[in-house]
Every structure is written in C-alpha cells, then in structure tokens.
Amino acid sequence: MPDMRAAYGMALLEIGQNNTNVVVLGADTTDSLKTAGFGREFPDRLFNVGIAEGNMVSMAAGLAYSGKIPFASTYAIFLPGRAVDQIRNNIAYPSRDDRRGLNVKLVASHGGLSVGPDGGSHQQLEDIAIMRAIPNFTVLVPADAASVYTLTHAMVKQYGPFYMRMARSKTAIIYDEYIIPHMQPGKAITLRDGSDCTIAACGITVAMALEAADTLHREGISCRVLDTFSIKPIDNTALEKAARDTGIILTCEEHNILGGMGSAVAESVSSSYPVMVRRLGVDDTFGESARDTQVSDLLAQHGLSSINITKHVRQLVR
Amino acid sequence: MHSRYDIIRRNTLKARTLIVKATAAAGSGHPGGSFSMAEILGCLFYKHMRYDAANPCWEGRDRLVLSKGHAAPGLFSHLAISGFIPESEVETLRSLGSRLQGHPDMKCPGVEFCGGSLGTGLSYSVGMALSARMDGLDSRIYTVIGDGESDEGQIWEATMAAAKFKLDNLTVILDRNYVQQDSYTEGVMPLDAAATGPNPNPVAARNDPTLWRTSDKWRAFGWHVIEVDGHRIEQIDSAIRGAKQVSGRPSIIIARTVKGKGVRHMEDNPQWHGKAPSPEMVPIILDELKSQAAVAPSIIAGDMTRLDLEVKRCDGAGPDYIHMDVMDGIFVPTVTFGYEKIRELRPLTDIPFDSHLMISQPARHVKKYAEAGSDIITVHAEVCSVSEFGEIHDYLKGVDVGVGVAVNPQTPIPPWLKEFVPTLDQFIVMSVVPGRSGQKYIYESHQKTRTIIQSLNEHGFGGVVEADGGVNTLNVADCFDDGARVFVGGSSMVGQPDMKQAIDDIRGRISYARQRMLLHRAHSLGGSKLVHDWIALHVVGEQSDTLNKIARESSLL
C-alpha cells in the first residue's frame, strides 16, 4: 500500500459496499483524504460540507444519532484542533442506556510534525492529549497503511466514537498482512521481544523504534518494541508486563510530550508497576516548516530519530 | 388552522406553569427563553409532531432538536405534558441524579439532542434530515434556534449546508426574542442591521417591520422564510403547515417573540435570561399566568353586507379570536349568517373563529360549522338535552374543535352539564338577551358570572368563561374581576372607527384589572412588604410606576 490515506480510502470503499449505513463527511479535503473515491462510488453517501469542520462534526453526530455510521475526515489540526466543542458535546457526551457517545468515526490525516512544509500552524501536536481527555472516545494512532486498513474495518464493527490519526507522509511497512490478525483497539502489539528495555511507539515512530532496536541488538542490548497504536484504551496488561520484564520504558511519539501516548504509558505503569519511563516527543513547543526532503531533520531536531532513541536507551540501561 | 387551537393554548399555559415550578424548585435555570418559545413548542407537540411517548425512539417519529438548549425547562415541561415523563418530575430539574439536567440530555426520554453548547443543533439537524431522507422516512426535523445563538458562525455553516443538500424535511424555528444573556441582541450583536443604534430597544425592533433584516439573511442563504408573531398559535400553525408544502428547500419560521412572555416582570428583561423566580413569588406568578385574557370582536356589529371587510378589519386589529354570532331566526328572532358564510370568510385570516351558535337543534348542524373552519364552537344550553350536548361534545372533541356552552341571562347552569365540565373549553355567560348587537350590559350578569364560575370550578373546569354582551371599556375590568377571561366586543370593538385602538383600550382596562388582582394576591400572601417586592421586580419601562399607582389606589401600600 502506498500510504495511509490510500489505505483508508480503500477500506471505506469496501465497507461501503457491505454496509449501506456507512456515510462519509469531508471538509473540502475529500481528495486529499482519499474519500472522494467513496463519493464517486456512493454519491448519495458522501457529504462535502466545505471548509466548515465544526459543522461537519455536528452533522456527523446527527447522522450517527439517526443510525448511520459516519466517517468524518479532514486534517488533524482542524478536527480536535478546531472542533473540540462539537466533538465533546455532540459526539462524546450523548449517551442513552448502555450506548456511550455517538457512533462517529473521526479519522484525521496530517498528524504531527511530519506534515512538514505547511509549517507549525498545520502540525497538530496536541490532538492525542485533547482526545484522550474526552470520555467515551477510543484514540488510535496506527503505524502504517496496513494498520489503518485493519483499524478502519475494526471501527465499523465496534460501536462508539473513535479518533484515528494518520500521518501525511508515506510510511514504512511495519506489518506484512493487509488485515493484521491480532490488531484490535485496546491491545498493544509486541513487534520485538526483549528484556533490557521496552520502547513504546505509535505512528511513524514505530519504524524508528524498530530500527533502534536492531542497532541496540547488535550492541547486545535487548529491546522489546511495543506498537501502542491504541492510546485509549491503553493496554495496561502489556505495559505492566513490559515494566516487570524490562524495568525501563522509553516512549516515542510525534506529539507534545505533555498528555500524549508517553503520558498514557507513564500513567498506566505508575499505578501498576512503577518503573523509569523516558518520554521522547516534542518538548512543549511548536513545529516549523520543513521541505519534504527535510522532514526527517525536523523530526530529529525534536529528538524523533532512531539515533536519538538508541542514545537514550544506552543511557537508561547502563 | 383546522383546529386544536384550544388544546395548544391550554397545554402551553400548563407548560408555563411547569416552567415556573421547575425553575423555582431548582433555584436556577432559564425561564425567559423557555417562555418565549412556549407557543412554538405547543404547536409542535400538540398538533404537528408525530411521536409516541411510550416508545420515544419510534422510527417514524418527527424529531425536535432544541438547539437553544438553555431553554431546557421549556422542553421538559412539554415532554411532561405529552407523557414522556411524569409531570411531578419537572421539579427535579437540575437536581443531583435527575434525568432533567440543566440542559437537555438523552437521559430524559424524548430528548433527541444534548444541547447546551450553542450553535451546533442546526448542523446536527442537517445530519438527521440527511439520514431521514436516505432512509426514505417522511419524518420531519424541527429545530428551534435562538437569536443570541445566531451569533455562532456554525449556524450559518449549517444554513449553507441545508440549502446545498436541499433539505425540505427540515423546518427551523427561530425564537426571535431580542434578548440574550448580556443585554438586547441588537446591542450585543445585531441580527437586524437596521435596528442598531445607541440605545437599541427590543419593543421598537420587534414592532417595526422596516427594521427587520433577519429574513433577508436566510433568504439569501437559499431558505424559504416565513415570518410570524411567535405567540400567535394560529400563525405558527399556519407557518408550520406552509413549510411542509415547500419542496427542494429548507424552511425557517422567524417567530418574533417576547423573552419571558406571560410573566410581565420577566418580559423583555435580560435579567430573566437565566434566573429562577423566588419561591415567594411563585403563587403570584402562577395567578398571573392563569389570568391571561383574550378579546373576541363580533363582526355582526359591523357592516353585515360586507362581512369579508369586517374580518379583514379584525385581522388588522389583532384580536385573539373573531367572534361569529350565528343566528337562525328561530332560537333568536334575528338571522345573521350560517356555516356557508363562515366557510367563505375562513381563508381571509388565520385568527381563530369563535363560533357562537344561537340556533335551535345545534346537534344537527354542528358538524357543518366545524368543517367550515370554526376553532371553538359554543352551543346554547337552552336548546340542548344531555344526550344532544353529549353528541356535540364528543363530535367536537373528536375533530379537535373547542367546545363551549352558552346560557342566556335568564338561564341557570344546566344540571346536566356537570359531567362535561372538566373537558369543557368555554362557557359563555350572555349579558344581553341575544338577538341583536348594541344592547346594554345587564348588571346582574356580574353576580351570575361569579356564581357560575364558582360552580364550574367546583366541578374541575379547565376552560375559560367568556363575557358576551354589552362589554366595553367601562365594564370590562369588572367582568375580569368576575372571573371572565374572554371578552366579546360588538359595538365597543367592531363598531369603533379605529378597531385596533378600541381593542388596545379594552386590553389596557383588562391589564389594569389583572395587575390589581395580582397586587391584591401579593398583599394577601405577604402584606405590603410583598406588594412592594412584587412591584420592585417590574423594572422594565414604566411598569413599576403603574403598579405603584394601582397599589396606592387600592390602598395596598
């Protein structure tokens, strides 16, 4: 698969064939989000609302309340970053009987620094913190196209509000299969086993974590790599086991280090088996423009590289 | 309106009393905006919306989205009257563990939208309307938005989207009450561009059509726009019906309303946007609500050869009803007109027709008068047996037309009426011998009215007593004091060259009597201190000066 958005668009097309209740909303970004194809196939089920994200989110809530399964998509900076009131009050809050929140799937692209050239205004570094703090939401940050494809299918099967963040850039292939058999919300996936340290990563940093683990392995340091794509619910069991087995956890994400995946991991182990948790991420600041060829440099400036992960692990296990 | 007028009117009044009780019990809440939309929700709940209170999620229902969620007590009251929740539950408003949250919440059956954060309900409704259309449902989506709420940009995002998607199953009703939390809307953020100025005044802005610009906005966005007086049931009703006929476009009903409508000291007063009445004032406020009065000009006092023109004159003068004196030349010596004339006059106005049948054998004819477009039909006790009245009563109830009984000056309350009293909508006490216009009020009718009302109340009367015959500016206050609440005027209204002025004068006299009655009530509850406190609530305009004057005249201060 070429990229996350293409995988998302493909999954939607397949889901749309089987489930006529699935509808898609876009905010003048249907081409970019690759949802336009869904609209060509099902013209009555794609609603492009123009550049009006709050309206899109509230409309999705109304559709979900009426029994539809809406996927509302645009760039991350304009979803949690702009429409948090509509997300909270129109989607997350309404609950009846055992149904907590409305059945809306918010799928955002362009999360994190890897947005690149558009600059700091467009690099959403707070969405995980925002979305984690809203009750009833499941928050997912998949690492590659196959994960996106798998989780898009999974979201339709599970009732409730979801937020899934994708990256703009093409991503490394982490999983070989189209449908990843053991991937489900709430569960981390162990990509490498190890005993000296655990590296927990999500999104594009999973590839960095694997590369770092390979380097460290050659140096005789055994790293466990967890794909913690499910940030809420976080996999407490896997994290407690990692804490017990390895004694050290390093987290890595293209998000503010406050409130993101690293915070979720630290919160989890602090109440199960407290160990050292080192959080790598954007240090409570904003990003800036970087041309496509410079994105890895921008990430590296904020400590997001396999080299930096390697350096920190060496320090921690010493 | 092919009626249900009286059902809507009575339930709306009841809703207002529940709003007072609920907010007073809660000690907070938003009575002002609940009152301003009371008739709007009344028309939806008691006539236009399909729903099943026992099965609130029934797929075929119409949906109501209260986007201006702070008016929750208004919604809850109507939900209680409609049977979604017990009436007693409204007093749990805002209490810990209650289903009745400060803003509408799906914990409460019948609530379709969790409101509170303004500006989002219309977008949500667009989603619902799209869904209904996809599913082939003929359900309508009704969305009530506020004028303060229209400051939110998202309202206009949704407005564009609804037009783009051609949502003709969506009807928005704008509760245009001219007041928001801080102040008057036109001072905070003008919706009618021309109504701005150094000292924006809601009364002037509401009453001067040359200042209205809101409809232009919606029309420019591609909507079908209908403007109404948002407290006139028949106008709202007509607008809702009109919206159903529109295809390819969403509709908005711009309902000009009065914030706090029904409780004078709350009316047009921004202080009552989000404040509950104090418990000591509740009994007076409830009396104020229950003492709403109506005027009903009788067109036979005009040019009998041009009744169409008389109806149009009435329409321009803005009475509550138009009184139709039907005389057959048998029960009374005069002949006026019959049902054909009523049918002919019906399209000329939306104002309810209060048809008073002074005819013999009314049971044989009542159906024609109902079908001709009467909203309330009153028949004479003198020409009914219990079985005949029973037939009339059941028929009119079945076709949602109000049912009344009239008695001539010499006629007592008929003994057979007792079983019908609880469902009777109107009782006319004739204060002249019927047969011609222009007679003098028979003074003994005052005492008779009082006696009749006492007797009716003892049997659970929920309707209104109408004073008919010789009522004018000089005696209307006394008639009000007797307990009459609808006042028919022949020569005193239709017979006057300026009917609007004549009606305003009579309403002024009624208002005087009503304020005096409430001051007496305050005095009986809490002496001159409560009288003083009651007057002190009336801060808008010259209300308190007027009240002070009445109180002094009545030796209550």
Features:
heterodimer; A: 318 residues; alpha/beta; Rossmann fold; 2 domains; 7-stranded mixed β-sheet; 5-stranded mixed β-sheet; 11 helices; 14 strands; B: 557 residues; TIM Barrel; 8-stranded parallel β-sheet; 5-stranded parallel β-sheet; 20 helices; 13 strands; 41% helix; globular
Summarize the structure.
The complex is a heterodimer of chains A (318) and B (557). Chain A contains eleven helices and 14 strands.
Classification by helices and strands of chain A: alpha/beta
Number of domains of chain A: 2
**Low-pLDDT residue intervals, each spanning 5 or more residues of chain B:** none
Q: In CATH, what is the homologous superfamily of the largest domain in chain B? A: Thiamin diphosphate (ThDP)-binding fold, Pyr/PP domains
Characterize the overall form of chain A. globular
Q: How would you state the average pLDDT of chain A, rounded?
A: 97
Number of strands of chain B: 13
- CATH-level-2 architecture of the largest domain in chain A: 3-Layer(aba) Sandwich
Number of helices of chain B: 20
* Shape label of chain B: globular
CATH superfamily of the largest domain in chain A: Thiamin diphosphate (ThDP)-binding fold, Pyr/PP domains
DSSP strand tally of chain A: 14
Strand content of chain A: 15-25%
Question: If interface size is counted as residues with C-beta under 8 Å from the partner's C-beta, which chains form the largest one?
Answer: A-B, 31 and 30 residues
- The SSE string of chain A, one letter per element, is HEHEHEHEEEHEHEEEHEEHEHEHH
Numbering strands along the chain, what is their spatial order in the largest sheet of chain A? 2-1-3-6-8-7-12
Helix content of chain B: 40-55%
CATH topology name of the largest domain in chain A, in short, is Rossmann fold
CATH class of the largest domain in chain A: Alpha Beta
